[in-house]
Design goal:
Shape: elongated
Largest sheet: none
Number of helices: 4
Structural class: mainly alpha
Strand content: under 5%
Order of helices and strands: HHHH
Number of strands: 0
Number of domains: 1
Helix content: over 70%
């Protein structure tokens, strides 16, 4: 099970986090351009923070 699939299972996390947007980012993973601030910002703010927040919510609620 991927981290995103786990977030979809945890209803509280899925309600607080845009899981579909995160899945879209994973599907459109850039093969380059990591030096561009927009790419770094998008993946750090949306994906990394979303996964971290979802993991925290799942731990706190015991749904992990």
């Amino acid at each position: 099970m991927t981290a995103l699939a786990g977030l979809e299972i945890a209803r509280i996390a899925a309600g607080a986090i845009d899981v579909s947007r995160m899945a879209e980012l994973v599907g459109d993973w850039p093969s380059g351009s990591w030096h561009r601030p927009q790419v770094v910002r998008t993946y750090r703010q949306t994906l990394l923070r979303g996964v971290a927040a979802g993991h925290f919510i799942r731990k706190v609620t015991g749904s992990n």
